[in-house]
Write a structure and sequence with these properties.
Blueprint: E1 2-6, H1 21-29, E2 47-50, H2 58-75, E3 79-83, H3 88-102, E4 107-112, H4 130-136, E5 144-147, H5 154-163, E6 166-168, H6 170-175, H7 177-188, E7 192-198, H8 220-230, E8 236-242, H9 253-265
Helix pairs in contact: 1-9, 2-3, 3-4, 7-8, 8-9
């Protein structure tokens, strides 16, 4: 498993603090001695890198993220990217999309998020617009699945309906978590899979350290079950973990959860 710290933020000041998350997630990983598959976790043995960014120069940061990510997809079979806010995912997944296109592979994107992040994009998309920008760039909409959305702008609902983007609600998940996990895995079967995780997918009782708290999310236990199942998929190429903000956290709950999720992926 290759782990890459990507401490980028472009949230118009709303996500300041998220750039601190990658280092803290790795630091808290030292307290996890084994994951639930009984695999020993030794942070010193992990293959770890960082994309060094200047968050005052968003255009240059996006270029560096894209360039490094494309090279990573060419060289590494599986990678976890640690953000940063969700704007970082645009350049990461654009690189993934272009890599798949250049290598004749079919890309698939599953996004776990309380929000759709589909507002009309700026030139350098923020954490509220990155997915819409990716779609406008040509990412195949039939291969996108949004999971856990529970607070959308009217404009986003219209856009998602027009583009026929598939969605899975929290209620669908909790009514039959095992079956819905099978549906998610079937959706991604036979494609190159990228999974993007906004920590606000999880209920703020378990993950308070994020910018937009949305009640009614999954429990940490339910989400860990999902990610453990998805991690078994041989076509899983990348996962990103975004929007953890240590400055808004309570007793390290959210950072620890980020480390726990990471431990289940290694």
């Amino acid at each position: 498993m290759f782990i890459v710290k990507v401490p980028g933020i472009n949230g118009l000041g709303k996500t300041k603090g998220c750039e601190k998350a990658p280092n803290l997630i790795i630091e808290f990983l030292k307290q996890i001695y084994s994951n639930e598959q009984n695999k020993t976790i030794d942070p010193q043995l992990l293959e770890l890198e960082e994309i060094h960014l200047d968050n005052e120069d968003i255009e240059k940061s996006n270029y560096l993220i894209y360039k490094n990510a494309f090279e990573i997809f060419e060289e590494k079979p599986k990678t976890v990217f640690l953000g940063g806010d969700h704007s970082v995912s645009y350049s990461l997944i654009r690189a993934f999309f272009d890599f798949c296109d250049s290598s004749g592979k079919e890309p698939c994107l599953i996004v776990f998020d309380a929000h759709a992040d589909c507002m009309p994009p700026m030139k350098e998309p923020t954490h509220e617009e990155w997915l819409r920008k990716l779609i406008s760039d040509g990412f195949p909409t039939e291969n996108i699945l949004l999971v856990g959305n529970r607070n959308l702008w009217k404009e986003e609902i219209i856009f998602l309906n027009e583009k026929k983007i598939k969605r899975m609600s929290v209620n669908q998940l909790i009514e039959d978590l095992e079956e819905m996990c099978e549906v998610i895995m079937e959706f991604a079967d036979g494609k190159e899979l990228y999974v993007s995780i906004d920590i606000d997918m999880i209920d703020p009782a378990f993950a308070p350290g994020t910018g937009y708290l949305e009640p009614g999310g999954l429990s940490s236990r339910e989400f860990l079950y999902l990610i453990q199942r998805i991690n078994r998929m041989k076509n899983l190429r990348a996962v990103d973990i975004m929007e953890i903000n240590p400055e808004k956290d309570e007793k390290g709950k959210t950072i620890k959860l980020g480390s726990k999720i990471l431990s289940e992926l290694v």
